[in-house]
Amino acid sequence: MFFLQETYAPLLLERKAGRIRRSMDAEKTYREVRTVFEGQDRSWQAIMTKSLKRPFVLFACEPIVQLLGVYMAYLYGILYLLLTTIPSIFQGVYQQPAGIAGLHYIALGIGMTGASQINARTMDRVYVNLKNKNGGVGKPEFRLPAMFPGTVLLPIGCLITGWTSQAHVHWIAPDIGIAIVGAGIILSFQCIQTYVVDTFTLHAASALAAVACLRSLAGFGFPLFAPAMYNALGFGKGDTVLAVVAIIIGCPAPWILWHYGERIRKSSRYTQP
Question: Which residue spans traverse the membrane (predicted)?
């Protein structure tokens, strides 16, 4: 809060214009040195109205937000489903006491933390490398490479977790699956977040709010049907259903954006700088 620098483009441009006007003849330069944002209604009522409406407009009108929002919602739903079913796996299947069963959340933490740290350190390097190969011109699509393994790791982790639990394999096996699920989720999360920010620039907060709203609803809804699903199908078939849906929704997403993302972005008025 106290040490982060201001990054909001309209405010930075207004400050720059103000410095230029103060350094020159005010009467002469006031009409000449102005930003495109000056003259707009900056009252709190207008700002609040735009800010509250824009995320829903983006989700209704932007294919990128719709595609990534649905997939991120599914990722968030699986994450919360996993958070609520880990106790039932290790207490119900492996007959472990609550204190020991709770330690298996460490597997999820290892998967998410490890993958996020690796991706955070490599994402910018990959972006710069692809930018240099593209003649020094960067694209939001250059944020997506880590999403390709992420969409593959998620269903693999679901299958390992479900079927090893169903077969009563040693408890380390479902822990490995849980860690892989966590890695797949966080890789896709980071790529989606950075892609949305790079795509919508000035309206990035509204775009992130749009996908966050949908994912929060999924995080609320998924744990509600999880007990009934696992009671009816078991952990093996239940997680297979989750894996198949993850493949259908997730695997095409980075491929579509990699090949057609630029064309989709150019047709949007909200992605223009």
Answer: 56-83, 103-123, 144-164, 176-196, 208-229, 241-260
